[in-house]
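Give me the fold.
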Amino acid sequence: MLKKYVFAMLAGVAVVLTAPHVQAQELKNAEQVGYVLKLITHVSNDFLRQVERKTFDRIAHENEEMHEATAAMEKAVAGEDAALKGKVSGALKDVVAAGDATAAKASTNDEAVVRASHGELAKKVAALNGLFPAAMRPEANFMFKPGERAKPAAK
């Protein structure tokens, strides 16, 4: 099972490396977009922490947070050009669908099944991150430190 998870993570990295992206200086709301990329990655990693702890009942809460984070990204890119908004919107729909699938599979309480589903979520998050410049992308294992999660001022 670990091989499948590692393969999923490597596939996500490949998506990131091959995906077209914009330059940070081209973004009208780069600070907010960067923050929300971190937030989405953090929430995805919270899914994984719940799997590792076998607290499957908490995954539904993480999924609610993912919905909130993806809505924040929609707002963050609202002022960007239509092509970027379209790509981001499509990637966000994929992230939400993968989060929903992981939350649904959490009810099985089967660690292997839920971990595999999270692997798909991680690939979708990596694809979203790949739409943006490398300097804006959080590390795949990014987690906010305690007290660090305060939002930057919205523009």
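Confidence is low (pLDDT under 50) at residues 14-20.
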